[in-house]
Write a structure and sequence with these properties.
The structure is a single chain. This protein is mainly beta and 206 residues long. The chain has a single domain, classed as Porin (Beta Barrel), CATH 2.40.160.20. 9% of the residues lie in helices and 61% in strands. It has an eight-stranded antiparallel beta barrel. A three-stranded antiparallel sheet has the order 9-12-13, with no helix packed on it. A hairpin with a 5-residue loop joins strand 7 and strand 8.
């Protein structure tokens, strides 16, 4: 619910800023690139009966490339990888250390950009495909995560510094689930990850 409220506030800011000056900043570049420092905050659900899954928050760099079809519509490809520690709290047993796993979730979003003087808010939605790799099993002998498709919502704000450079604030919500297999058990458990991604960085137009 808190994540949805954040998106609602950013979308409201987007339309408010757009109403101030729709004629400003009509020039645009076909390509943009951003380098952000992001915080990836998983929100695992209670998908496993009798156990709670916890994934650690990660702080990593993220790179994205944006192509503008016209002044308002663009597509953004987001690239980054994160490492998360995994713990499992089992009723009647206690905490288990499930080691760590790396996530590589390339995400493609379709965006709509607004213009208000030096501010350029945007909203977006798209798909991602998450690859799980570099698994450390921790207290278990074997654990596997299935690669999976997910969906993405996005809201952000660019602030123009000059003709080439700008600052960026970006929030994304990924809706992602994976099937987890433990110790070769033929039965899998579906686990929600649903990370909130908050980023701050700098961008270049070219």
């Amino acid at each position: 619910m808190k994540n949805l409220l954040l998106f609602a506030l950013l979308i409201g800011l987007t339309f408010s800023l757009n109403a101030q000056d729709t004629d400003a900043a009509n020039d645009y570049n076909k390509w943009q690139a951003r380098l952000r420092l992001i915080s990836v905050i998983p929100s695992p659900g209670d998908d496993i009966d009798g156990a709670d899954v916890d994934l650690s928050t990660a702080f990593v760099p993220e790179l994205d490339f944006t192509y503008f079809f016209n002044k308002n519509w663009a597509a953004e490809l987001i690239l980054g990888t994160t490492k998360h520690d995994v713990d499992l709290d089992v009723d009647g047993v206690g905490a288990l250390d499930l080691g760590h796993v790396w996530l590589l979730p390339p995400t493609l979003n379709l965006q709509y950009h607004f213009y208000a003087s030096n501010f350029k808010p945007y909203v977006g939605a798209g798909v991602n495909y998450t690859i799980f790799y570099g698994v450390d099993e921790g207290d278990l002998d074997d654990i596997e995560y299935d690669n999976a498709f997910g969906f993405s919502l996005q809201a952000g704000l660019d602030y123009t510094l000059n003709d080439k450079w700008f600052l960026n604030l970006d929030i994304k919500q990924l809706f992602l689930k994976t099937d987890v297999t433990v110790n070769g058990d033929p039965d899998t458990s579906e686990v929600s990850i649903d990370p909130l991604i908050v980023g701050l960085g700098v961008g270049l137009k070219f």
